[in-house]
């Protein structure tokens, strides 16, 4: 198709996940004409793509859901404590239908470029099929974990069996019955998929490079009384969640672990282990900061795993010793460790037998060759910047975002970028994003953007752009908070070390969501957008 301007809107929104759909809802509510461009063949973002066996959210569904509409909160019924991928996707479709959003979403429409025109302060967005859209504003709702990395496993194309990726799982269920399967990767995705695949496979090899800490999920069917209680008190619960560091009610402890006895700490770890879920690391505010408390919590998990896994060598392989709990994203599982007690499951610890690569009929390590029929890659994402970097985004004077961010992302508030007027990123780098209840963070960002556009409209202005000094100060600010934290000292996708050549930078605001919200509100309406140039 030849390049032609097919449509002009006020706003183009890239991505139709939780963020893009809520942005669309708010733009329509404001009376702006908006369109969402989505590269997938369905809405739902992460929950559209990641349909691997066992995929579910590890934040309770009553919290990991939109809070903007009490009608939705009351009407929707979650069937489990932690909803499965399928149920979350059905929920997103339900919300889209309820608010008539679907007709403003163009599916199968990848965005390849977006260019700002200085002369008329308009953005031109180019789609993969060669169409051009002209809009005043552009909102990137492209997600933090939406670009899978292709692992550098030699001979992947040599392997004659099936290759599945957790991040782009086929829509039709895969039947592993009677098959020999290898799963590469033991992050949250691999840890969720392994117990389910093990139930079907003739044999399952789990290829682990770095172990992660995982806490039992204790998932269960939704307790009717628990749900009713939440629904009666939703407004207060949501409000209370906003007072926490991650906008999540994890019953966070306030007394530092170093101030209590080792026996009390042990009891508290036990209580939280039994309760299950991510709340484990919310027991003490200093769990990742005080070396003794961190060591105690890490050893507690090690002991638990040793009790669960019959083979002491496998148990020892399964728990990290090179970093403490909380340095990487904590995993939540449903029977992961126990899976290694099955006769049809083999742990392949790549630290002891490095992976040489794929063969035609399987894989080879330094120890020997293994025959398999299917390979499952649960090898992670180019987080935070991956999705934006693969679009050719150009701001004032043709400056490329990719080039500007070559040494790591620079932006203001995680929401705007100097030199890129009228461009907004939802849960962009430099914001709490994945360290928070991300659905709530999405709403806060979209609400901020909506308020900003209202401000421009009320004042008869058309452009807004972060001042260079605001961006510089924000970069220093988030680096100052992150400096010395366990996360910033640990190799993981949080720090970009999982992607070859990616600069190890601060991609996250680590000061907690309460402080963050105060900061963005202060930088926004409360100061009359003083850190921005309004044109
Ligand atoms: P991940 O945490 O980055 O894990 C990727 C895994 O693949 C790691 O074990 C990594 O090993 C391994 N790997 C990568 N390349 C490899 C190679 N060439 N050879 C061998 N191993 C290789 O990715 P993820 O599991 O998809 O999870 C990403 C994030 O998504 C999570 O942390 C979480 O925030 C989110 N998520 C959430 C849920 C949920 O809510 N339940 C579920 C899934 C994902 P190394 O560690 O050695 O690099």
Describe this structure in words.
32% of the residues lie in helices and 18% in strands. By secondary structure, it is an alpha/beta fold. It folds into 2 domains: 4-147 and 382-534, FAD/NAD(P)-binding domain; 156-377, no CATH class. Helix 1 (18-29) runs parallel beside helix 14 (438-458), helix 8 (262-275) packs across helix 9 and helix 9 (291-308) packs antiparallel against helix 10 (312-318). The site of NADP nicotinamide-adenine-dinucleotide phosphate has 28 residues, from helix 5.
**Ligands and ions found:** NADP nicotinamide-adenine-dinucleotide phosphate
**CATH superfamily (homologous) name of the largest domain:** FAD/NAD(P)-binding domain
- Termini separation: 36 Å
Share of helix, binned = 25-40%
The CATH class name of the largest domain reads Alpha Beta
CATH topology of the largest domain: FAD/NAD(P)-binding domain
What is the strand tally?
20
Gyration radius from CA atoms, angstroms: 23 Å
Q: Tell me the fraction of residues in β-strands, as a range.
A: 15-25%
Task: Quickly give the structural class.
Answer: alpha/beta
Low-confidence stretches: none
- Total number of domains: 2
| Mean of all residue-level pLDDT scores | 97
Q: Number of helical runs?
A: 17
Query: At CATH's second level, what is the architecture of the largest domain?
Result: 3-Layer(bba) Sandwich
Shape category: globular
Note the main sheet.
Answer: 8 strands, mixed
């Amino acid at each position: 198709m030849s390049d032609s301007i097919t449509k002009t809107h006020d706003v183009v929104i890239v991505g139709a996940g939780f963020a893009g759909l809520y942005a669309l809802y708010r733009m329509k509510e404001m009376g702006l004409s908006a369109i969402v461009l989505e590269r997938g063949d369905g809405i739902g973002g992460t929950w559209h793509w990641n349909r691997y066996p066992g995929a579910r959210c590890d934040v309770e569904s009553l919290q990991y859901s939109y809070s903007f509409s009490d009608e939705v909160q009351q009407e929707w019924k979650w069937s489990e404590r932690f909803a499965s991928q399928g149920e979350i996707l059905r929920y997103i479709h339900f919300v889209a239908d309820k608010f008539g959003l679907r007709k403003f979403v163009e599916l199968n429409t990848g965005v390849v470029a977006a260019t700002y025109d200085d002369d008329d302060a308009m953005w031109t967005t180019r789609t993969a099929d060669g169409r051009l859209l002209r809009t005043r504003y552009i909102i990137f709702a492209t997600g933090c974990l939406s670009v899978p990395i292709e692992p550098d496993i030699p001979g992947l194309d040599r392997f004659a069996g099936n290759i599945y990726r957790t991040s782009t799982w086929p829509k039709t269920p895969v039947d592993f019955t009677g098959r020999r399967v290898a799963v590469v990767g033991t992050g949250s995705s691999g840890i969720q998929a392994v117990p389910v695949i093990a139930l079907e496979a003739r044999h399952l090899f789990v290829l682990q490079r770095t172990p992660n800490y995982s806490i039992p999920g204790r998932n269960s069917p939704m307790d009717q009384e628990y749900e009713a209680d939440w629904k009666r008190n939703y407004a207060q619960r949501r409000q209370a969640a906003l007072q926490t560091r991650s906008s999540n009610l994890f019953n966070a402890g306030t007394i530092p672990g170093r101030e209590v006895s080792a026996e009390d700490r042990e009891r508290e770890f036990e209580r939280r282990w039994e309760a299950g879920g991510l709340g484990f690391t919310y027991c003490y505010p200093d769990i990742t900061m005080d070396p003794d408390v961190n060591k105690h919590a890490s050893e507690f998990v090690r002991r638990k795993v040793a009790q669960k896994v019959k083979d002491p060598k496998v148990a020892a392989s399964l728990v990290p010793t090179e970093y403490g709990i909380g340095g990487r994203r904590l995993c939540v599982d449903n029977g992961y460790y126990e899976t290694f007690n099955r006769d049809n499951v083999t742990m392949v610890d790549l630290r002891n037998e490095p992976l040489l690569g794929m063969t035609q009929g399987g894989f080879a390590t330094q120890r020997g060759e293994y025959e398999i029929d299917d390979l499952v890659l649960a090898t992670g994402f180019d987080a935070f910047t991956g999705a934006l970097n693969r679009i050719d985004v150009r701001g004032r004077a043709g400056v490329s975002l990719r080039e500007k961010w070559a040494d790591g992302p620079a932006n203001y508030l995680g929401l705007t970028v100097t030199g890129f007027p009228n461009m907004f990123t939802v849960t962009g780098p430099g914001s709490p994003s994945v360290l928070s209840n991300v659905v709530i963070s999405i709403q806060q960002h979209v609400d901020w953007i909506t308020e900003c556009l209202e401000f421009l409209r009320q004042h008869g202005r058309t452009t807004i752009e972060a001042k260079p000094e605001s961006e510089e100060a924000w970069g220093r600010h988030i680096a100052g908070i992150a400096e010395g934290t366990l996360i910033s000292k640990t190799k993981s996708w949080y720090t970009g070390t999982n992607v070859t050549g990616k600069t190890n930078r601060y991609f996250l605001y680590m000061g907690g969501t309460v402080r963050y919200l105060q900061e963005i509100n202060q930088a926004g309406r409360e100061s009359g957008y003083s850190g921005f140039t309004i044109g």
